[in-house]
Amino acid sequence: MNSRLHAAAVFGSSLPGLLLLTLGQAVVVVCVCSDLVRAVSVPRSRRRYVANTVFRTLALPSILATALTVLVYAASGAWTQVAGAVFVLVSVIFRWHSDAGDDHWWTGKGKQLGSWLRSHTVSGRLAEPAAA
After folding, report:
1. pTM of the model
2. What does the H/E/C string look like for 46-66?
């Protein structure tokens, strides 16, 4: 086994590693539960809007947490755990990319952040406050 993979396996079985992996899995559970609420809610309702916002916010951290879990499981040789975690990873990625039509808090935030950044910059540099 590669020394870096061995270090990942040792970290995954230590107390700080287990705490981080557990926290990551909790984020994944909240993300998947909000996706379930989003799937059964009435379109254009507040419940669906909130669930979609929570899902969109937690999708990327849950993907990263699950990928880290897959790496630790693969380094330790737990192949059934790897298969289950890869299934969850692919499912979250698929749901993140497939349902893009719903309204959520992040809709239009890219344009708003871009216009805010353009209004606060002067020729590509951030505008500095006036000296007192």
Report:
1. 0.75
2. HHHHHHHHHHHHHHHHHHHHH
